[in-house]
Amino acid sequence: MMMRKIYLVAAALLALVSTTTHAQLSEGGTPYSFDHIVPATKVQQKTLPAPDLVQLAIEDDLNDPRMEYRVGKNISVNWNPTNSGTWQTMPDGTVIWRLEITSPGAMALGLYYNDFWVPAGGKVFIYNDYKNQVLGAYTSAYNTQNTIRATQMVQGEKLTIEYHAPAGTVGFPNIDIKQVVYFYRGVEDFVNGYIEEATGVSGYPKADPC
Fold first, then answer.
1. pTM of the model as a whole
2. Is the separation of the CB atoms in 135 and 152 below 8 Å?
3. pLDDT tens for residues 47-100?
């Protein structure tokens, strides 16, 4: 059967895991919390109800024959370091901000932004619950050129966005999240790669080729 061309209606940039410009902007590295002792604290978690998958299936049955293959549902939010997340100051003066985002049953989650501005010296990372998929670092290098408006999808129903800045950093980050994308189909191979790496067990059945 001829392979069906997929239009990512809900998240045109986010599902292009290896080719999207936004995915290529990251500079590598490791989140501060991965290799430093961070005093235990409860990081604020924002939980979004799963979308109505029955209604989405009805809509998809109508749209799929028109080649409009949707893989995710965009959910509007208004979250940023001023109104959401948890701030901590480390003994060495480093400042860290984290926000956990969860939506039950999601195969993956993605983020869209109104604005994404990072002070010089600061770094932003986004990672999954297994901590085997890490996006970033995103830095001030992209404040004026190739500005970040979306970041690629992250495996699983939970992701953490983490900002850290060393002591003396001037300025406050503006990581203004406007939408969370709930991926519910069409990304099984991507998701399984991270699940199998972490657990040795496949998490979702493979999609039949078209």
1. 0.88
2. yes
3. 999 999 999 999 999 998 887 899 999 999 999 999 999 999 999 999 999 999
**Cα–Cα dist 125/205, whole Å:** 29
What distance in Å separates the CA atoms of residue 76 and residue 108, rounded to the nearest whole number? 16
Count Cα neighbours of 119 within 13 Å in the Cβ-side half-sphere.
Answer: 14
The amino acid occupying position 68 is E
Classify residue 4 as exposed, middle or buried by CB count within 10 Å of its CB (0-12, 13-18, 19+).
exposed
Instruction: Give the phi and the psi of residue 79 in degrees, each rounded to 5.
Output: -125, 135
Cα separation of 145 and 163, whole Å?
20
Q: Per residue in 163-183, is it b (16+ CB within 10 Å) or e — as a string?
A: bbbeeebeeebbbbbbbbbbb
**Residue 193 CB partners (closer than 8 Å, separation 6+):** 155
What tokens were used for 89? 């100051």
